[in-house]
Write a structure and sequence with these properties.
globular
Length: 60
């Protein structure tokens, strides 16, 4: 089920707060750990590859 615009905004806000809470210079490490956890949750290589390509192109 797709995420609504409101849910996406709320998740983005949570992500921003989590990156800030990670501390100076730790944002990239936090994001790397988050990506690995989300890859494990998705568990579908084709969907993961599509998301990687979309992020590289700035799409969603």
């Amino acid at each position: 089920m797709p995420v609504t615009a409101l849910e996406l905004d709320e998740l983005y806000t949570q992500l921003c707060h989590a990156i800030d809470a990670a501390g100076a210079g730790q944002g990239e490490a936090y994001l790397a750990r988050l990506v690995l956890l989300l890859i494990d949750e998705i568990s579908t290589p084709a969907r993961i590859s599509t998301a990687i390509a979309a992020a590289r192109l700035g799409g969603g």
